[in-house]
Amino acid sequence: MLKAQISTFNDWVDIFAEWKKDIGYDEKTFKRFLPNYVLEPKYEPCRYNEIEFGDFRGDRKWERVLDIPNQGIRDALQQLIVYQGDTEFASVEQQRYLVDRAPSDYDLYALMRINAEEMRHGWQMSHILVTHFGEGGRKEAMKLLERRAYEQKRLLGSFNEVMENWLDMYTYTEFIDRDGKFQLKMLSHSSFMPLAMSMDPMLKEEAFHLGTGNNGLKRILKAGKIPVEIVQKYFNKWVPTAYDLFGTDGSSNAHWAYVWGLKGRYNESETDEEVRRDQLNQMARGLYHAEISKLIVDMNTLIGEDQPKLIVPDIKFNRKIGTYAHQTYTIDGKLLTTEQYEKYKLEILPTDKDREILRGIFKENDWIEFKPFKGDA
Ligand SMILES: [Fe+2]
Ligand SMILES: [Fe+2]
């Protein structure tokens, strides 16, 4: 039973320990691969001490919640931190079944490290909530450990999906952790100093997650045991949820987060393009789409001539939010009738039969190119 109230960060840490037990976190394997890992908040100096964009541009970044000009901005900021923290703990819940089925020590190490770092990211967001946001922040930090991905209670769609196997794992780290990189980079420009200071250490860790995902998928394609059609189905499962993570088109939340300097554009420090405040989410989603398109072109070079090639699911396919929500487009962007679409989805998303085929393939460990484990880097 979780405590009813917390007053210090140490109280929160007690609840975190209960959360780990409750989700069945494998402490023994964690200790085996990461014996020296310390969960702790990490803050690094920001590149800019002044607010970088929006109405407060040029003012000193806010170091305390009391420095923030009004309650509307405080609430929006707290919400951004809560959403980020929610995804971190959720991903550990989603990945909890994979420990027993790792194809090699390297893969198991990668999983344990990714989980540890996601817990640290959630810990970081909770640290900001508990130390800066008073009673309301402490409540929200507790709620981060009360919602469960496997009860579909997490705040964003991707984080309530079921992860059953290691093809899920590497598709997820490639595409969903990559969305994470986009979100973190956008928050690294934040007008709230403690949030901006949190992002560089998180981004460094995140790079390992997406690198592991990208490399894992390439190792799978090189091994050539999992049919490309099935790999494509897993892309079709996860990528639309990643598109959704960028939020609705023409979002007023994104607009205000920009006006208040809370969350920047992905390419904020590299672009001199005029900002289109009503297009922020579409713009970020577009950059993400471009990035994953390149990765998939690269993956296709590993697929034999006689095999089908992988494609990037169209931005309109299987969306749950935004302009294209609940519409009936194919993965290559063609509009179907509702009837055609229902049938189509059964062909294009992973089925029980695919899962059965995969279970057969996973019995041997030759479905992924071997990578030796050389110790914790
Ligand atoms: Fe993370
Ligand atoms: Fe991650």
Explain what this protein looks like in three dimensions.
By secondary structure, the protein is mostly helical. It has one domain: Ribonucleotide Reductase, subunit A, CATH 1.10.620.20. The protein is 54% helix and 0% strand. Helix 4 (105-132) packs antiparallel against helix 5 (134-143), helix 4 runs antiparallel to helix 7 (193-223) and helix 6 (166-187) runs antiparallel to helix 7 (193-223). It is globular, with a radius of gyration of 21 Å. The model has no long low-confidence stretch (mean pLDDT 95). The chain binds fe (ii) ion (2 copies). One fe (ii) ion binds at residues 88, 118, 121, 180, 206.
SSE topology:
Blueprint: H1 9-22, H2 27-33, H3 71-94, H4 105-132, H5 134-143, H6 166-187, H7 193-223, H8 228-245, H9 252-259, H10 280-300, H11 338-348, H12 352-362
The structure holds fe (ii) ion (FE2) (2 copies).
What are the defining features of this structure?
mainly alpha; 377 residues; Ribonucleotide Reductase, subunit A; globular
> Which band does the percent of strand residues land in?
under 5%
Task: Give me the number of helical elements.
Answer: 12
**What is the ordering of alpha helices and beta strands?**
HHHHHHHHHHHH
CATH topology: Ribonucleotide Reductase, subunit A
**Unreliable residue stretches:** none
Span between termini: 37 Å
Content-based structural category: mainly alpha
Within CATH, the superfamily carries the name: Ribonucleotide Reductase, subunit A
CATH class: Mainly Alpha
- Oligomerization category of the chains in this entry: single chain
Radius of gyration, CA atoms, in whole angstroms: 21 Å
Shape: globular
Per CATH, which architecture?
A: Orthogonal Bundle
Number of strands: 0
* Helical content band: 40-55%
Largest sheet, strands/sense/barrel: none
Give the mean pLDDT. Answer: 95
